[in-house]
């Protein structure tokens, strides 16, 4: 699988969109943590993955972002988080059958901050390793560490996952602070993150979530300037709004797509969406990528 990921460095591949926001829009009750839908609403989870494949995505993440021991304990979720991870990978694996897509096991931040010593590095490493192992057991082709804001934490996660599995690892952080939105909320600069993650052995680096696709270009430019690895880019569909107590994203697929060409020009190799982006957003992204390929080939 590493070979297929390396090949992305010389081309453009489409990734999927958001999970929790779309699953809630499709019927998963807000009171149900999104990851538990793998057990309570598996048909909705698998169908969303299938819809992303049909839209043109060739990287399908798993609905497991917050399925780690620390967060389950903090939220008092009385479920086996390992089973949630395995099932999430199994559902995405079933959905991609025959498509040639890859399953990217999603691991988000632990919920602990190393800078204030809320957990020891060895504790975090054990949590990340166990989640990666469960995703691998479920059939993940690779691991994506996503939406991290603390560089020290994602470096711990990267090392732990590489020791626990033989799977390639994408390391993606969320840049939403600073004058040009090139810093994480913990103050880490995009250029420093790209350098550190490349040196630490990531197979791809990138950015996701953040303040929306309209603000992510400077972070993409900074990342590309400091790494030759494949660049993973999955921004939000703008900023959320509250409507009748429900979080909604109003950016349309066409509005989202208007920003895609410049991100490709800046060096994005794997492009999709995060919060608020659904299959129709990804369908628009895939059409733009396909059109770009046709033009570059002279057809």
Description of the molecule:
This protein is an alpha/beta fold. The protein has one domain: TIM Barrel (Alpha-Beta Barrel). The chain is built from 13 helices and 10 strands. The protein has helices at residues 2-7, 20-25, 37-40, 42-55, 69-74, 81-95, 121-138, 151-164, 190-199, 217-225, 253-257, 260-265, 279-296, and strands at 13-14, 59-61, 102-107, 142-148, 169-173, 204-209, 231-235, 241-243, 246-248, 270-271. The strands form 2 sheets. It has an 8-stranded parallel sheet. A two-stranded antiparallel ribbon has the order 8-9. The longest helix is centred in the middle third of the chain and has 18 residues, at 121-138. The relative contact order is 0.14.
Write a short abstract of this structure:
It is built from 13 helices and ten strands. The chain is an alpha/beta fold. It has a single domain (12-292), classed as TIM Barrel.
Keywords:
299 residues; alpha/beta; TIM Barrel; eight-stranded parallel sheet; two-stranded antiparallel sheet; 10 strands; globular
Per the CATH scheme, the topology name is TIM Barrel
Major sheet summary line: 8 strands, parallel
Strand order of the largest sheet: 1-10-7-6-5-4-3-2
Oligomer: single chain
End-to-end gap: 30 Å
Mean pLDDT: 95
Morphology call: globular
Number of strands: 10
CATH class: Alpha Beta
Order of helices and strands: HEHHHEHHEHEHEHEHEEEHHEH
**Rg measurement, Å:** 18 Å
CATH architectural label: Alpha-Beta Barrel
SS strand fraction: 5-15%
Give the number of domains: 1
CATH homologous superfamily title: Homocysteine-binding-like domain
H/I helix tally: 13
Low-pLDDT segments, ≥5 res? none
- By secondary-structure content and strand pairing, the structural class works out as alpha/beta
């Amino acid at each position: 699988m590493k070979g297929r990921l390396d090949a992305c460095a010389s081309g453009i591949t489409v990734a999927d969109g958001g999970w929790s926001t779309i699953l809630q829009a499709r019927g998963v009750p807000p009171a149900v943590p999104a990851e538990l839908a793998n057990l309570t609403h598996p048909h909705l989870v698998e169908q969303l993955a299938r819809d992303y494949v049909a839209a043109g995505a060739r990287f399908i993440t798993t609905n497991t972002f917050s399925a780690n021991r620390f967060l389950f304990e903090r939220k008092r979720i009385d479920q086996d988080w390992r089973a949630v991870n395995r099932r999430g990978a199994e559902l995405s694996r079933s959905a991609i059958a025959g498509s040639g897509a890859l399953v990217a096991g999603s691991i988000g931040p632990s919920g602990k901050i190393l800078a204030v010593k809320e957990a020891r590095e060895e504790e975090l490493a054990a949590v990340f390793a166990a989640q990666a192992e469960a995703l691998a057991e479920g059939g993940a082709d690779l691991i994506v560490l996503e939406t991290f804001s603390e560089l020290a934490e994602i470096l711990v996660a990267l090392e732990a996952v590489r020791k626990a599995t033989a799977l390639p690892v994408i390391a993606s952080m969320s840049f939403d602070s600073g004058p040009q939105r090139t810093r994480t909320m913990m103050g880490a600069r995009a250029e420093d993150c790209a350098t550190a993650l490349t040196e630490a052995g990531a197979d791809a680096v990138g950015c996701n979530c953040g303040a929306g696709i309209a603000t992510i270009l400077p972070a993409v430019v900074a990342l590309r300037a400091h790494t030759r690895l494949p660049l993973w880019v999955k921004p939000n569909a703008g900023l959320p709004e509250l409507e009748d107590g429900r979080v909604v994203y109003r950016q349309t697929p066409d509005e989202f797509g208007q920003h895609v060409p410049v991100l490709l020009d800046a060096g994005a190799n794997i492009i999709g969406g995060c919060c608020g982006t659904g299959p129709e957003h990804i369908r628009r992204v895939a059409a733009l990528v396909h059109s770009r390929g046709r033009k570059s080939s002279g057809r």
